[in-house]
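name: query_chain
kind: protein
chains: 1
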Amino acid sequence: MVQLNKAPISTELTELLKSANEVMRVRKTCYLFQEGMEAKELYLILSGRVKVSKVTAEGQELSLRIASQDEIVGELTLFTDNPKYLFNCVVLEDCEVAIIKKDDLEKKLFKDNKLAFEFMKWMSDHFRKTQTKFRDLVLLGKKGALYSTLIRMTNSYGVPTERGILINLRLTNQELANFCATTRESVNRMLTELRNLGIISVAKGKITVHDLDYIKKEINCEGCPVKYCSIE
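structure:
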């Protein structure tokens, strides 16, 4: 049985660990899976970070989430015939993952009502996160997409400092643009505007948000619970 260095954060992950019997180490820039590949496994992240993304027909990448310790990727292939992965999953930093066989997990969900219920709750939260992200992308425009992404980043990777909230994650402007479904040039321009207003600053590839309330007011932030308003 796979063991974690620290206790999992939820009941469902505790149960899922019992379904994992193999651990794999994966190096940075490698793929756990790619869109269109036959889907036989789910992955529980034990350490490191991975990025889940989709490439459009025009070749533009849309980054959907960054998954880190105690999170699952590849879960959308459950209970489908001849399943294929819907997204790409690339390793952002060397990581360790527990491999959960799709068929084994499906059998366990059928037999274990408690596990099935907990997994359904986890999936419901996951879908709500995705829905709120796409809502922001569709309804708020490029500026709103960037601002909502910054808010999500502070919720997921924010570290309070004397000067504001440091987003403790290095991202290039192109990578940030991929989360916003826009171009690097547009992100460059909007970040420059925020820097000129003193709302943010950038040092060594990391953004510090000095006035989060300003960003929230600009997009009429609804104050969704952090569990739904995150980049993870």
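note: The first strand starts at residue 20 and ends at 26.
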